[in-house]
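Materials and Methods. Structural model of Diaminopimelate epimerase. The 101-residue sequence of Diaminopimelate epimerase from Nonlabens mediterrranea was retrieved and submitted for structure prediction as follows.
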Amino acid sequence: MRNNIYGKTGANINFVQLTDRETFKVRTYERGVEDETLSCGTGVTAVAIAMHKTNHTNANEVKLETPGGTLKVSFEASETGYKNIWLTGPALSVFKGTFTI
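The predicted structure was written out as tokens:
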């Protein structure tokens, strides 16, 4: 029997390891791909904010090491949430395709 904890369509899952108070290693399993991806922008952004919100870091710029490279997420935290969220890092083309009709 399939466990439906993640719903019928599944979920993206981020595995996080603390390296130091400003650095985390992140590996992402992505639904649709149904495998680990080299990096996930929304995933590392969510990890950075979650680690701040849960007091695993007090930095407002967090370094995230993924199999695809190192990324940084910076943000401004307030009592009502987070704003001015920026994801920075290298961007490489890994696939080029052509649609024909």
